[in-house]
Design brief:
This protein has seven helices and two strands; from the N terminus they run ββααααααα. It has about 160 residues and is mainly alpha-helical. Strand 1 and strand 2 form a beta hairpin. It starts with a strand and ends with a helix.
């Protein structure tokens, strides 16, 4: 643990590096949607579905809603997160977005290692990515997002993330 002097508590360092984590800005504490938001909840739901159909990820959808439509927080505006909105409209994938991105990365590294089998730095990178996948899948199993019998395997990863 590394002591965080700004808030007087210890903070965790990066998982696979010896440096400290990056410090980002803190979102203002709000309990309700600000009065200056002019977009209605139904419009936001429509925007989310439309942008998902255009191929945007959940993170990009949130950023675009913030930047283009001045919606600071989708959950405050609609009462649901972007993932919940997509699940309600039956558009969400069965694998969470961040886990799918890590799996795509592992599949890409595996393809690279088939061509370059002596690339030991990427071999180590694959080990780190796969450990993140296992850690994140354990988290999602505990939260009930993934089924309890779901398990990461390299062959299934190639089929699931294509």
């Amino acid at each position: 643990l590394i002591w965080n002097a700004a808030i007087g508590t210890p903070s965790m360092a990066r998982i696979h590096a010896k440096r400290k984590g990056r410090h980002g800005s803190t979102r203002p504490f709000l309990k309700e949607n600000p009065s200056w938001v002019s977009v209605e909840a139904g419009e936001i739901v429509d925007f989310v579905a439309k942008m998902h159909g255009e191929g945007y990820t959940q993170a990009i959808i949130g950023t675009r809603l913030r930047d283009l439509y001045a919606v600071p927080n989708v959950k405050l505006a609609t009462g649901k997160t972007i993932r919940e909105i997509l699940a309600e409209k039956k558009l969400a994938s069965e694998i969470p977005e961040d886990l799918g991105a890590l799996m795509r990365r592992a599949v890409g590294l595996r393809a690279h290692l088939r061509i370059h089998p002596k690339d030991v730095s990427n071999k180590r990178g694959l080990q780190l990515v796969e450990s993140k996948i296992r850690r994140l899948s354990r988290y999602y199993k505990e939260r009930g997002v993934l089924p309890a019998d779901w398990d990461y395997s390299r062959k299934l990863a190639e089929l699931q993330v294509k």
